[in-house]
Design brief:
Layout (H helix, E strand, L loop, with lengths): L2 E5 L7 H12 L4 E4 L6 H7 L4 E3 L19 H6 L8 E6 L13 E6 L10 H7 L5 H20 L6 E4 L2 H11 L4 E2 L18 E4 L8 H9 L6 E4 L5 H7 L4 E5 L3 H10 L2 E4 L7 H8 L4 E4 L3 H6 L2 H4 L2 E4 L4 H14 L5 H8 L4 H21 L14
Parallel strand pairs: 1-2, 1-4, 2-3, 4-5, 5-6, 6-7, 8-9, 8-11, 9-10, 11-12, 12-13
Length: 386
Amino acid sequence: MRVAVVHDWLYVVGGAERVLREIIKCYPQADVFCLFDTLSDKDREFLGLGETKTSFLQRAPFIKTKHRLYLPLMPLAVEQFDLSSYDLVISSSYAVARGVITGPDTVHVSYVHSPMRYAWDLQHAQLRDGRLNRGVKSWLARILLHYMRLWDTRTANGADTIIANSRFVARRIRKVYGREAHVLYPPVTLAQATPAPTQPYFLTASRLVPYKNIDAIVAAFRQLPELKLVVTGDGPEAQRLKEMAGPNVVFEGFVANERLRTLMASTRAFVFAAEEDFGIVVVEALSEGAPVLALGRGGAKESLGDAATSRVGMFFDHATPDEIASCIRNFVAQEGQFSREACRQRAAQFSPGRFRREFKDIVEQTLAERLDQGDAKWMPSSPRAA
């Protein structure tokens, strides 16, 4: 088969790019398409990427740092990829990659990290956080997002099979697109080092942006002056958070992955207050043996499972300082009942090997369904069937 993998864009290595890495391992012969690619050589080596095929946005000014300004052009850009010579197209999408145009003889399997949340259920929060909730700029932004929703809905049936990265995302796909999706949790790099002794601090790690609710965590620790919090990550909220923090909160800024995993391995517990589609960082913390204290919504509910029974963490119902502080106090009172080994065992369910195996099974199932439908391209005389 000729295989194409389409990813939204490549400029940093995040959770979606780690999924891309495992897809490439499944189909190392695939050609990789993306809107633009500005990755460093080190990141390219980590992902196993060769040369990528990019869109006209590759040459756009300031594309690495200002790519969101080009959002109106992204649907057009992704539609220009000529995939007519490929038998199988795999899209890895959290924005527009799912909207590639494929013909009736091409099988399209789409792994959806999330529908465009800033255009759907997070629209009002994004406008508010971007100070675009009033005035002419607000209306221009709303018109753009309306256009993006129309395009996103129009392309909903372009994929033969949709895979969601959590049951939470599958519910959003059903609501937004009217499609049922397979659920396949993303791969998480599990701990490799020997477990480290626990140190007297709590940890949170995130981009410092409003919807991550780091301000609520920092405010909670103002109610807990006897406990220490370490905050890793950087972003536009950094200065405001430092100004509101008490002396028991330490900001480390952006840290390399190795340093983050070391901090996870030694923390008393990892605190997570965002409503994420899955939350890979939660499973990374678990794999290092850290119990997780999380907002009981979104993907964290799935990655932690029945946290109370398995003793891998605790939930709070709302991302408010009072509820977070109450959860931390309850954890401290019961800390001896939590099992760091149980945390590692829970994380092992999200291994890269498990992802590759189940992903290929879903793709093979989709191809087999095409064969059952009598598609001439997939009849026994074809190389695929042989």
